[in-house]
Amino acid sequence: MVLVKPLSFMNDSGRPLGKIARWWKTQPADVLVVVDDLDLPFGRLRMRENGSSGGHNGLKSLIEHFGEEFPRLRVGIGRDGSGEAINRVLGDFSSEEAARLPVILEACVRGISLWLESTSVTAINFINSFKSDI
Questions:
Q1: Which of 4, 44, 73, 74 has its CA 20 to 30 A from that of 131?
Q2: CA 114, CA 63: separation in Å to the nearest integer?
Q3: For residue 103, what pLDDT band results from cuts at 50, 70 and 90?
Q4: What is the pLDDT of residues 64-89, one digit of tens each?
């Protein structure tokens, strides 16, 4: 297992991740990509075995280098209502959101562990049924 955080801009993350995957001789289906997602409400988690970018520029870059056949975990950050995506993506969470982060991150870690140790179906069922507002 290798954990990678590309130092490139998010919009170009497919290029370095593609190089790393080729170096390790790893198939796209064996790479779990974790991304933030403005279009999911804060704290909502979604895991899929493959699919489209859904408008996410980082996923677009990865699809360009990998195709669509790689699993992804989307972590909802929601929109803040200002319409400025850059401020939301690079800014701080509100104090209420920050208070919820430990539970959300714990669920992400559990889902990733299930993906690594069990089956993708088990991980997907756990992640997609997670409710952070309870």
A1: 4
A2: 24
A3: very high
A4: 988 889 999 999 999 877 667 878 88
pLDDT tens, position by position, 25-44 = 999 899 999 999 998 999 99
Could you tell me the domains of the chain?
11-129 (3.40.50.1470)
pTM: 0.90
Comparing C-alpha atoms, which of 93, 90, 85, 99 is closest to residue 132? 99
Q: Mark residue 62 as left, alpha or beta (left: phi above 0; alpha: psi -120 to 50; beta: remaining).
A: alpha
Nearest CA among 123, 131, 126 for reference residue 100: 131
Is there a contact between 31 and 73 (Cβ–Cβ < 8 Å)? no
